[in-house]
Amino acid sequence: MNFYMLADRDNWVNSPINSRGELTETCEAVKTTVRLMNTIPSFDSLHVEQNIGVLYYRPYAREAFIAHENPGKLEGNLLGEAYQHFKQTYARLIEANINAGIYDPEIHSEKLPWFSILFAPGNRYMDAKTQQKLLDYIEQGGNLFCLPGIPCRDWDGAAVKILHDAFVNHDMHDFNGWKSAQIGKGRLIEVTNMYFDGVFLTRLLKTLSLSLAVTSSDPRVKTTLLKGQNEWVYFMVNTTEETMKVEISFYGIIQDSLIDGLSPDCRLEINDGIALLEIDPHSVKVFWRNMQAGL
Questions:
Q1: From CA 21, how far away is CA 175, in angstroms rounded?
Q2: Which stretch of 109-113, 121-125, 272-276, 288-292 has the lowest confidence by average pLDDT?
Q3: What is the DSSP string of 243-274?
């Protein structure tokens, strides 16, 4: 959140302060957010807990931009299709209530952020430097999912098979929907079918023995965890137009009582790892634990 659009300008409307200096109906959301920031001691140092990431490879986005005005194919591949694979993959993760992080090799130039799982949607083209980064990630313990296949060429058409050769030179195992090879401490997985849903993702997490920190019985109620030095802060977002009654499951918590970040006198009780939550349409609930105080 920033305050760049706190007041109306020439090119946007409905800001918390209008052009006459008057408060609007959206000001209440800003007040609520600031109150939450002041309630949680380490709010400014919170970072989102993300075990799953998606590769954002800029050459695919540039190709899609060019193909928008000049559609065509290259060696049977539809130009811009790889970028559509990225958008589809990220959208399906969000639909399944998985708050995936983004890995951009041009921003994270030195070290790949740590994800237990990294989806790499694309096509057969990827430069050697990026392929090597991804292979290093696998060897250090990461699980890389290439879909719908493993890249094997550079952008000039030359063969660059860093990932491909690592894949075929190790023992492969067939699962229902993907092929996997153990490489170093991690795995390279090829998923040839671009369509996957919540069932696929649930099976995937179970296969890799990975559990999400907080989940909802209905994926339309989005959940995520932010961690600070002493605080764990859980956000629950109802994306629907109806009041939702859901079960919220917490990994690693059996019994606890979480503080309501917007109504500190209220608590969310967790029993056997599950809390019952009723949340209004298009609204947000925030709960937090003070680890230092044992709350």
A1: 61
A2: 109-113
A3: -EEEEEEETT-SSEEEEESSSTT-EEEEBTTE
User: Model confidence over 48-76: pLDDT tens digits?
Assistant: 999 999 999 999 999 899 887 777 766 66
Number of domains, the chain: 2
Range of the domain at 76: 52-207
Lowest mean pLDDT among 121-130, 158-167, 192-201, 259-268: 192-201
| The pLDDT of residue 228 is above 70 | yes
Same domain, 191 and 262: no
Same domain (yes/no): 174, 222? no
Do 233 and 197 belong to one domain? no
| Domain shared by 199 and 227, yes or no | no
pLDDT of residue 292: 66
Phi then psi for residue 140, to 5 deg, are -85, 0
The model's pTM = 0.85
End of a domain among 207, 225, 247? 207
In angstroms, the Cα distances linking 251 to 179, 258, 266, 270, 273 are: 28, 14, 22, 11, 7
- Single out the residue in 207, 237, 260 at which a domain terminates: 207
The CA distance from 151 to 162, in Å, is 9
Whether 67 and 200 share a structural domain = yes
Residue 45 lies in a domain: no
Axis-axis angle for helices 81-95, 58-69 (nearest 10) = 120
| pLDDT for 295 | 47
